[in-house]
Amino acid sequence: MRNLILIAALLASTPALAITANSGTVNAGAQVTVGTAVNSNSDTDTGPGAPASLNASASASLTDDQALVSASNSIVATWASATQGNANMGWGWNAVNPGSTSATEVNTNLAPTNWEYNFTTGANAATFNGRWTLNVGFEIGSTFGIQGVYGSGGLPFNVTPFLIEPVNGTGSFSVALNPNTSYTFGFFNFGNLSNTGGGLNSNAFANFDLDWNITERGVPEPSSWAMLIAGFGLVGAAARRRRAVTA
To answer: Residue-wise over 70-86: b if at least 16 C-beta within 10 A, else e?
Structure first.
């Protein structure tokens, strides 16, 4: 009985994991311009709480006798729970108009944010952890990269590198979160290219992947709970053996 009272007291005094998922959103956009002609498309997907899966994609293209220009942007995001998920985005373009003198522009960052997750912390301080990978394909003369992973509520605007060159990279970050506070984390690509004089030849592609999780400080990890329960089991078994010997 004494052991049961001790277990109950420990469980009552240990804060529960209390991240509230408010909503998730993905946005995609693409636009191409050749002279005065413009083709632009966008797509969005959103859901309340921690959506199991969201996806959005957009593409745009223009052709004439001297130009072939296309751009694309797509993103898929999943939530395993309110505290864990993944977001993956691809974007790029292909522009071939060597004989054209028309101004040419491609743009894949029309969407204000390509991925967003809004959540509220519980009574405990927490940490948002992320591990990212950026793979970039061939490109010429462009501004091309990922415009960070950002957070609201006074958090650093950019906790991943702002990459404007075709650099493959990977990294991780952790951002402290306050108790009982609503946050929005997200990212967006930075991909655009223009040539006012025409004669543009360029192709580029990039893929950005983010695995993220939220941990609450002061709350035991699942492995710690397993060890704690196993320890109580051993204590109970020893107590039963002592009673058996006494009897």
So the answer is: bbbbbbbbbbeebbbbb
| φ/ψ (deg, to 5) at 12 | -70, -30
C-alpha closest to that of 26 among 42, 44, 49: 44
* Both structure tokens of 230: 């196993």
According to DSSP, the residues that pair with 43 across neighbouring strands are 28
188-232 pLDDT, tens digit each? 888 888 888 777 788 888 899 999 999 997 655 455 445 545 554
CA distance 131 to 1: 46
Bridge partners for 93 per DSSP: 71, 204
Q: List pLDDT tens digits, range 142-158.
A: 566 676 676 665 555 55
Q: Which tokens hold the place of 89? A: 């985005």
| Assigned token pair, 147 | 């415009």
> Tokens 């691809």, residue?
90
Name the residue with tokens 């743009």.
Answer: 107
- pTM attached to this predicted model: 0.78
DSSP class of residue 12 equals: H
